[in-house]
Specification:
mainly alpha; 76% helix
Length: 89
């Protein structure tokens, strides 16, 4: 169930980032949602156990771990947005 939380948090962050960036085409929306999900899963699986000690994948839900997933999602969406602005992506 922890994976579902990470995916939902990441997708929501990517979708909100697409709204804030006024993404008009579906490609930008999909890229933002994908980046959000990727960042949330990576942060939740790698940083969560190191910083908090628990694991979302193991079913230990704490607000700190959800915030770590949200932070990873926001960072990855920001990185993708910067790459898109530099016309690399």
């Amino acid at each position: 169930m922890g994976y579902a939380f990470m995916i939902i948090v990441g997708a929501a962050a990517g979708w909100l980032a697409a709204i804030m960036q006024r993404a008009v085409n579906s490609r930008s929306l999909l890229i933002n949602v994908g980046a959000g999900v990727t960042g949330a899963v990576v942060a939740g699986l790698l940083l969560g156990p190191m910083l908090v000690g628990g694991s979302l994948s193991g079913g230990h839900y704490t607000p700190n771990e959800l915030l770590i997933s949200l932070g990873g999602s926001i960072l990855s969406v920001g990185a993708v947005s910067m790459l898109r602005d530099m016309q690399i992506l």
